[in-house]
Amino acid sequence: MKIKPNLDLNNMDFDILSPVILPIIVIILLFIIFALVDLYRNKSRRKNVLVWTIVIILVIPLGPILYFIIGRKDSDKR
């Protein structure tokens, strides 16, 4: 006899999950904001500002990470 896990979201108690999920959401949002602020403060030295903005916002949570690893190196050597 197999027991099926109950994955019905209507019966899920979000009060139990909120102490875990909310800090993760806040950290991700802060990371996105920090990446966007860094991008636009240095936009005169960065290439592809619009592309990086779209990646940071739409590819959550990898977008900001990719920006800090790859995007900061993608600058003019002035």
From TrEMBL:
Transmembrane segments: 16-37, 49-70
Record's bilayer topology term: Multi-pass membrane protein
Keyword terms of this UniProt record: Cell membrane, Membrane, Transmembrane, Transmembrane helix
Main localization of the protein described in the UniProt heading: membrane
Keyword tRNA-binding part of the UniProt annotation: no
Cardiolipin synthase N-terminal domain location: 31-72
Keyword Cell membrane: yes
Top-level lineage group: Bacteria
Subcellular location: Cell membrane
Protein name: PLD nuclease N-terminal domain-containing protein
Organism: Caldifermentibacillus hisashii
